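Predict the assembly for these two chains.
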Amino acid sequence: MTDNAVLQTALTILLLPIVSYVILFFLGRRLPRQGDWLGVGLLGIAWLLALRIFFHFWGLNDPGYRVEGVWRWLDLGTFRIDAGILVDGMTAVMLVVVTTVSFLVHLFSTGYMHGEKRYERYFAFLGFFTFSMLGIVLANSLFFLYVFWELVGLASYLLIGFFFFRPSAAAANKKAFLTNRVGDFGFFFGILTLFTACGTFNYLELFAKVNQGALAGSVLTWAGIGLFMGCVGKSAQAPLHIWLPDAMEGPTPVSALIHAATMVAAGVYMVARLLPLFDPNALLVVAYVGAITAFLAATIALVKTDIKKSLAYSTISQLGYMVMAIGVGGAAAGMFHLTTHAFFKALLFLGAGSVIHAVHTQEMPEMGGLRHKMPITFWTFLIATLAISGVPLFSGFYSKDAILGSALAFAMLKPGHFVPFALALAAAGLTAFYMFRMVFLTFMGKPRDHHRYEHAHESPWVITAPLVLLAFLSIVSAGWHGPADGWFARFVGPYDLARITAAQAGHAAMAPVVAATHATDQASGHAAAGEAAGGGHGAAAGHDAHAVEVHRKAHKIAMYLSILVAGTGIWLSWLTYQKKRISAPAILARLPRLHHVLQNMYFFDQFYAATVYRGTLGWAWLCGWFDRTVVDGIVNGCGYLTRFTSWVVGLFDLHGVDGFVNGIAWVLQGTGEGLRRVQTGRVQTYLVFVCFSVVLLIFVFRAL
Amino acid sequence: MNVGLEHFLTVGALLFGLGIFAVMTRRNAVGLLMGVELILNAANVNFVAFARYVEHGLDGQVVAAFVIVLAAAEAAVALAIVLAMFRNFGTVHVDAVSRLQR
């Protein structure tokens, strides 16, 4: 494939879902079966095209290779924003992940959402979401990243609140959007800081400028933390994770697509993509936030009885893993885990959806023994659980191992920072425990609600086929090796590891980033051969030979530890929930306060309600008071003043002007009255006047 | 006593004044006309006086004759008016004829 073909294919992949949205939104109701076949079909084509790009990159086997297409979008002379797409190895992998999960979710939904009201709208929104997510993946500038970021938030809002007539759903989608917004505020701040310093939104130009020192010191750190805030909001890291469990109000396929596999991964992808903009201090923040989130969420997932809520906390925990991985210098490991996690988490959610579809409840205490009734669902769910628990031979093991290895290497290279590794390891054990708890409670043992059990049956092929395919991917995406030496290395080069580790350990300055040799003329793109695989890597290689050695040791130790921890978790879970040797209720009874804290999810929601919500409402009340009293007072006061002035003027008008006019009339009338008397109508009077006048004239003219 | 022109003129003036007075103040229309006669006759006296005391002054007497005729004609017309007044207003009181009074 030529570079132009790559760009055109990528553009087609981007646009097919939005075409699906437009057609289904406006014409969906008139199509046969409300057009679900159209949604599935268009996404299927997009999926095939994504595979095409994927295998193209596979064949190239060059992690530094990238293609960028740029178009002039806004040009005001001094200010210019270009629209464009960037396709490199990471993009190719993400395209496959997003389109695969989206296509399978579309297919699954034709069975799951059958008979729902606004069915065509659902598929339209799925298409809109996929378009926005692909926009994030393909964007080549912070500007358009932010645009699609917000669009994805909107799509999430629409889909979480699909059953908007349920007040809990309406509250949930508002919460998701607003929590995201808080993160986006920091994100926007980071973007603007970078733009102000570097004068561009384009990734490659930014990397070059930052590498040359356009920003430095604490400003760069804060810009990085600002960008990370976007990840905290979108990828549900503590303390902005509160929206994800509530987002389970949406239909289960939506949870699978958005809140497990793709949208929440957008934050991780963004940090990985913009890695050169994060300096070691910012990455430290990233690592700790990720590790704490991973551990916290895993502890909460232990006590949740709703299958979707438990999976939601599991997602938050795994996202914490990915974020932490990037923070400790294993960006490739984090992205690898993102890929494997997308498949097995989507599988877990869709499997849960299949179960919910069969038994019409989400509470695990009402399930049990379903493995006999729903074998396909059971086996695929089990495969996913093995993957997420980090059992060897399944993909999750390799990705988790890579992350734990990076964390341990980080701890070794930077003594004192062992906390991320410790938390991650503990979370791994907890993950194995609660995931198998889920399997035991749902599928094994004796059915606890016989009525539901009787009615349960295996789901139709449109539901089970995606499950099988995802199970297959959950195994195969392991590729028998991790990110450093497996199939993933063809796409995302290990230069991230070496480069960031060197900087993290305080060795040499940051290795030179790939030079900005991207195209800027209209509607064309050409590849900028990454020198990362060659020169840049070589320059850094000499410095971090020690680091590489530490990594190798760390990976080995981490592998053994992770198998140990996962095995312990599974064994304890088996003892507790299958063999009933350990009694969970008894343990919980002995730790009532801990149980209380976990059940209330560490009181994050209550804390926010008491502080942020009350504060905001208080501020709103204050503004309202100001508006009512001061502003309205001024306006009303002006009214009164005007009326008063008018009254005063009116007085003048009443008395002055009218008085004058009346006065004239009075004078005239008086004069008239007076003069009227001349006209007596009697001749004698007139004669008197005549005689009088004659006498007068005599004396005037002295006629005599 | 030597009666000169001035005595006649004085008499004429007095008569004239009395006539004016009568015209001005009489309420009765006929009385008013009597005043008018007085004025005319006063003028006559003046004319005749001048005719007596001026040489070749017969013009005065001729004028006096004219005036007498004129007075007669005028009296006739005036009395006709008074008659019409009486027919319309039912009275010869001059104050009653004040319809032109505003």
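Chain B has one domain: 5-89. Residues 58-89 of chain B form the longest helix (32 residues).
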